[in-house]
Specification:
- By secondary structure, the chain is an alpha/beta fold.
- Helix content is about 40%, strand content about 15%.
- Keywords: Isoprene biosynthesis, Magnesium, Metal-binding, Thiamine biosynthesis, Thiamine pyrophosphate, Transferase.
Length: about 625
Amino acid sequence: MQSETQNILQTINSPADLKKLEISQLPELCKEIREYMVDILSHNPGHLASSLGAVEFTVALHYVFNTPYDKIVWDVGHQAYAHKILTGRREEFATLRKFGGLSGFPSPAESEYDAFIAGHASNSISAALGMSVAASLKHEDRKVIAVIGDGAISGGLAFEGLNNAASDPNDLLIILNDNDMAIDHNVGSLNQYLVQITTSPKYNKLRYNMYMRMKKYGLIDEKHRGQILRFGNSLKSLISRQQNIFEGLNIRYFGPIDGHDTAYIIRVLRDIKEMKGPKLLHLKTVKGKGYSPAEKDAIVWHAPGKFNKDTGERIKPCPPDGIPLYQDVFGETLVELAEKNDSIIGITPAMPTGCSMTKMAERFPSRTFDVGIAEEHAVTFSGGLAKEGMLPYCNIYSTFMQRAFDEVIHDVAIQNLHVVFCLDRAGLVGEDGMTHHGSFDLAFMRCIPNMTISAPMNEQYLRHLMFTAQETPTGPFTIRYPRGRGHCKDWRCIPQKLAVGKGRMLREGKDIALISIGEIGNAALAAAEKAKETAGIEASLYDMIFLKPIDEEILHHVGKNFDKIITLEDGTISGGLGSAVAEFMTENGYKPRIRRIGIPDTFIPHGKPLELEKLCKTDTESICNAIMEECRK
């Protein structure tokens, strides 16, 4: 396909090559980029639909602006695949999200064209504003563009950036990629506003020309530009009988225009690129554009996995018989609990499908809330519900919970409110890489007073912990669990109430104590069996279940009976289980040698989970080697 139909694309190794093309050639180039993305992503899975919808304006941006001197900040970064292809990474695109290959998100370490990292949503306006102000302070004629899409405009940080952009002198250009989608459908009043908003291009041109003439004849100066802009906004609102939220913030607004008309986008960009002051170009796009299956079901095709590019049939991996995804166990268990407890509420920030909150939404729509890309709001909203006697199960991916740390402390923990935080995608998540690994939750939750922290070793214990969380009378309760499938065919057990702060012995031995929490306990158990077969080593293994409160009875037993300890966790070793065990042993006068196994104190790259586990030495073989090494000392 590439040699026969991608004749133009094969000549593009940089934006400089792109600028050599006639505008009339660009639609064909866009078609070839889409074909190339579909071809590669059909057998090397990634984020498909978002980048398909961003092709035309990506081409237009690189055609008009002088990148990498001019800066483009992408938000969210999974819509930047065409950007990668156009900026010297076409041949490497086949390595996307593979261990040692291209990142699935913009990465300044990977390319000078990637201005800022963007694995989480809503940071582009703030980051690009900082770059724009820096350029001004350094007297550089550098253009800075923030591309914000896939629902990221609804995030709180985006609003903070908009507010600041309106008040500080800058020439920032914001591209709003409005595809009426995030991962699932966009929610909230802002989305409805974007669907309805209209403006007059003739009016925008008239107002700008009037402003330039007044400036030319000395009737106004830059000092009073904001006053003229506000006057223009008021005049426009009077004529159209509609207030534009962006122009109400003193940000020049253009659009909405067709985000798939490359020639027209180029014309508009050329018209507005030299305008002074912050401005926003509103593009209406179709998520999944150009590939029929993705256009018809953009949610499924956001990240579809492998598929037959000709038929559109998704190639689903054959799961182990009867073993579900952890997220599905969560979703089904939540429904079971909600059927018996009317106070249970389900909350998710824009990830109902990913966390299987859709099951709750189908059964109890009035008790299920998708609050959009707004983790901070999700937490405080949960706190408000809990304050009035409801029991919110707030499901947030571990990596995204980092953004709501302040709200967990101030709006939940200080008041000791009964909110159940269900942290999906804990540990090493795989190909999404360092921005998405759930490395830090054990450590940052552990330092919060009143917080209960738990992690199931398998699906049955996820159900037990979800049941236990509703039985705990007060206080925030965290349950963190991994991405993917677990281990139990008989996961549909009857949920049992666990004793909070109590662990369990899984294996008894005399040579060394293994202390684990969560999913990694399965690898530890296999490693202990292998160490016995290989070297005759008898290891005890304790599944702590709870990090806080921690089982002091088990720790006293270990401190008294073992001089060698290995702690195991699929979180950072800085501040997590290993740190807790070491602190306990020191405070109680025990002096064992402690080896901590977990995610190292560094940012872990992307790759398959097994590859990353080997890199971090948290796989079964590495744990077995650690056991034997410690016992030889």
